[in-house]
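Operator note (shift B, R.M.): manual run for ABC transporter permease subunit requested after the automated queue skipped it. Running by hand, logging everything below so the morning shift can see what happened. Input copied straight from the record, untouched. If output looks odd, do not overwrite the archive copy; leave it for review.
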Amino acid sequence: MLPVRPEVTRRTGNRKPRRSRGERLAPYILVAPAVLIIVGLRLYPLVLGVNFSFTGDGVLNGQPVGLDNYMTLFGDPLFRQAMRNVALLVLLLPVAVAIPGLLATFIYLRVPGHRFYRVVYFFPAVLSPVIVGAIFNLLLAYGGPFNGLLGAIGLGPVDWLGDRRVAMLTVVGVHVWATFGMALVVFLAGFATLNSSLLDAARVDGASLVQEIWHVIIPGLARTIQFVFVTTMIGMLTAMFGLLFVMTSGGPEGSTYLPEYYIWIQQGQMNRPALASAASTVLFLVMLVVGLLQISVLRRSGRED
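Run finished. Output pasted below as returned.
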């Protein structure tokens, strides 16, 4: 009997079994329905909307007008105010992320009553924006209970929804209160992946709570924080219509306009669908830039890890 050479055995053992054609096609078949849904219900309407933004409204309906809609758009004071409010949302974004992050930290550290707080913090997320807006319309009315409380301590009433200097901040604050429960859940999921031995080591070394958060928790939840940043920003850009409609209707003097509210006004009340499509395209580009920046940060973080 001839001896079998070791290298032949080694090559045979390392050779991967050939997959059949059906096995190779199976992943593509499984994802095909989702891809078709995305293409049919998302990408195709998006392309149609971008194309429609270069056509005219009214007597020029369907006729190519080039960049006229975009020139009209950026010449409109209401749209410029909406874009300034987008910049305000970007500035307030760290606060909107820090609030659920800190609350999730206290729940993770098991402060007294943490189970009760977990339920209470998430409860606003299940309420309709219309219900939330109606409730805060009553609470923040000029003669409402909140101003009554301020008057009792000598601070005087504030026109929370009628003063253009504070109306947008008020609506954003209500939106953060109504939606931070979902971010809280994401943070708690991130804490499940945090190495608790690092916190124990920090406590043994005498680290304070602030030092634990800054040097252990924040680096350990870097990817979770980045995810919450981008989802919170997208929510602010696309999920505040209900609150704006109920609480301020874009007022006072257009100070609470956001792109999505401007789009609804142009399409639903002014009957200018081409201009609304142009505004939708601009909003999409803003969201795309936010998404690309987030991907860039995630890749850089992955390389550093």
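Quick read of the result: The radius of gyration is 26 Å. The chain has 14 helices and no strands.
Leaving this for review. - R.M.
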